[in-house]
## 1
Amino acid sequence: MFCSNCGEELPETAYFCLQCGVKSSKGVEAGVSYPWNWEKEVKKALSTAAKEVEKAFGTVKESINKTIKKEPITCPNCGEKNQSDSSFCYKCGKAVS
Ligand SMILES: [Zn+2]
Ligand SMILES: [Zn+2]
């Protein structure tokens, strides 16, 4: 008997694959249920991974936007226009970032 998912050779008495945990044909025949919700767990893991990728993309997009943005920063204190990469007003020293 071989696993239908990963091809691992299984003992005749195995209801589940020793390698990947998928139910064997013997397990299907016997009508055993999974000890845990395999499908649900896998889906959860996949959606978590998708969220991580999304987050990473968001961070990249954000830094690109910051690089592209070349608008001068107007000082909230004195109204002087500062370079877009300024952290402090060059005139009065007020933090502008
Ligand atoms: Zn397997
Ligand atoms: Zn200023």
Note: Residues 1 and 14 are 9 Å apart (CA to CA).
## 2
Amino acid sequence: MKLARTFLYIILGPVIVCSCIPSGRDYGKEMYEEKCANCHGIEGDGLQQLYPPLKNADYLEQNQDKLACLIRFGTQGGLVVNGVKFEGKMEGQHLLSDVDIHNIINYISKNINPNLKQVTITEVGDQLIDCKE
Ligand code: HEC
């Protein structure tokens, strides 16, 4: 009995301690910088006529409810952002999980385009079920 309890402490101790120390990592930031910033820029400014901005982007603000689908399945065929027409293609990021997409969206709405609202993982999950490719 005593042995079992000692064993439990050895297993659970590090788990409890580790989960209490904040890791200091911002997964949304890491993901954004790895998966989006190449084209849309670290600050979300976009790149001339090639890549649309995310910062102060009217298109994104009007289509926030489609952002999760846009990240997973990409978009093409052209769109107008702040009066500028873009005729490119964005590939879908099929390997990102719902959680990754959730982290990216909230990173963007917190740091790049504060006109967007924060979303819950449930909202993102519901949106991804209804995506039209
Ligand atoms: C390889 C370049 C590339 C990458 C990487 C990329 N995009 Fe895009 N993105 C584009 C292009 C090009 C368009 C415009 C597509 C069109 O013209 O139909 C676009 C359009 C958009 C739009 C709609 C227009 C706007 O600016 O409001 C959003 C939102 C967006 N991308 C978000 C993201 C996010 C979030 C990521 C990271 C998960 C990402 N993109 C990764 C190239 C890219």
Note: The mean pLDDT is 90.
